[in-house]
Amino acid sequence: MKATYYGQSTVLIETEGKKLLFDPFITPNPAAKHIDIHGLKPDYILISHGHGDHVADLIDIQKSSGAKVICIAEIATWLGKHDIEAHGMNIGGGFDFDFGRVKMVNAIHSSTMPDGAAGGNPAGFVIYSEGKKIYFAGDTALTYDMKLLEDENLDWAFLPIGDNYTMGVDDAIKATKFINCNNVIGVHYDTFPVIVIDKDEAVEKFIKAGVNIKLPTLEETIEL
């Protein structure tokens, strides 16, 4: 299993011969606009919530790849109006796909579609595949609900660390204790001025807390 980072919270996980693309925001991102989104060809697109910096390329990539979209029910309904059939879920529910199982978990944030339509509740995902458990937190504050993942024995967690809109570094470190996971990939930072972080300081804080932290560069691939 491996993950490739495409900026902001956009991650492509390859597992069991399938490609899972999370929160596609590529073409509006100045750092990533050179990437050919139609070359990604995901089998699934997982959407944590409806904000533009998580769904900007959703429709274009789905149309060119035919990917199945996994999202909260309200976003699935919105996609239906764009002639896209999605697999709608809701918080606490799980479903078995051909690559493994997906469970939708709570996130504390907001969610509105780019056109102002209701985006339902924000969410995170736990992916069960190849005998591993991967947590993609989505955009979230630190929440005590994360303690529900404590006994999952997570292998990796993708956590937002940019502050302002989501958890910052300090709260993300607290989150690692709640979820009992010491392997973290930081996302949702540096894309906009208000979420620029001091990466060296962030890494130092995570290491001091005993956390194996990865802040991947654009298009870097990490073995999970």
From TrEMBL:
SUPFAM superfamilies: Metallo-hydrolase/oxidoreductase
Transmembrane segments: none
Record domain Metallo-beta-lactamase: where: 7-188
InterPro entries: Metallo-B-lactamas (IPR001279), RibonucZ/Hydroxyglut_hydro (IPR036866), UPF0173 (IPR022877), UPF0173_UPF0282_UlaG_hydrolase (IPR050114)
Record keywords: Hydrolase
Keyword Hydrolase tagged: yes
Lineage: Bacteria, Pseudomonadati, Bacteroidota, Sphingobacteriia, Sphingobacteriales
Family classification: Belongs to the UPF0173 family.
Species this protein is from: Mucilaginibacter panaciglaebae
One Pfam assignment: Lactamase_B_2
Taxonomic superkingdom: Bacteria
Protein name: UPF0173 metal-dependent hydrolase GCM10022392_17290
Gene3D superfamilies reported for this sequence: Ribonuclease Z/Hydroxyacylglutathione hydrolase-like
One GO MF term: hydrolase activity
